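[job 4417] fold queue: 2 targets
>>> target A
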Amino acid sequence: MTTGHPRSHRRSRTRSLRLLLGVGVAGVLAAAAVFVVPQLLPPGPRPLFQMPVGCGETWQIGTYPGHGEYDVDFFPLDGDPWGQPVLASAAGTVTVSGINGSLGGRTPENPDGPRGRGGGYWVKIDHGGKWETQYLHLLEPPLVAEGQRVAQGEQIGRIGSTGNSGAPHLHYEQRQGWQKVQTWFDGQPSGITHDDAEYTLRLTSNNCPAG
């Protein structure tokens, strides 16, 4: 035996659906606010970024047409580039540690192997205040994991040629929010601001242990 009027059941189901829909929309809006609102806040002061390579080492940095404005490639002036340490430019939290695009097949044993796509093995570090750094074309899986806190100068990987890379090097970026900006090292701008010509600089790293 059925009790109650069919219309009352329909109204009850409608109210339940509206309640669930309202809860779902509120959840989506709350999640969006968590992501969007911090990006609307003004950036914090620029961290004292250091070069992502060893203390006292002089490296060639540069760019070329089509590379991307503000992007910097690092090449060592001494020693074999394969496997040289890549260091965190400043303290922060690892937000990405993995593969960007595809790896390809360029290795120390097969340096002319097939190129991959994108950045290959890479790391992204959040330094707070809407500042982050990115490190691409690493030789192998990064030495750090997502969510890990790293110190300035801590090794995060090794130089390789994974992804869309023609030779072993480190592709490096500094970002403020969603925008790439000119790289600064040890409180000074690097001078690489555009990619309408190929040019290089030589800089010495001050990414040294504290004290």
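>>> target B
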Amino acid sequence: MDRTDRAIIDHLRRDCRLANTEIADRVGLTPSPCLRRVRRLEDEGVILGYHARIAPHALDRAFEVLVDLELTDQARATLERFEAALVSFDEVVEARRMFGAPDYHAVVAVADLATYERFLTQRLMAVPGLAKLQSRFPMKTIKADVPGGRGGAGPAGT
């Protein structure tokens, strides 16, 4: 990856709806070589996809909860069952296995506190292998690695 590739990525991170001609102009290329570079970056797995940012309240996901989870044991079967259950929940928008404690960190997004309480007691706490969890409620998000562009489905005009 060279400086031009990085510039293309930077522009797409800021606004993935930029037309190929706009990207080309901004990075000093003509449209054909620019499009070839974008396609190569996609093929090589550098660009993983294009996404629209949707207001959480529009999806009934404005209430976000950070959840730390600890398991009863670290047996492979326990980990696999727990991870399969965790990723199957639509309410879980992010999940990570951690080194040390807690074993997992998840971000849950739901409509409100009552919805979270139902999800927690009826579904999450019923997952086999779960020993302990702690819920934390963010006051506000100070920074998220999601640039403030227009969002969208991909480079238009490509």
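[job 4417] complete. Note on B: The chain has a mean pLDDT of 91.
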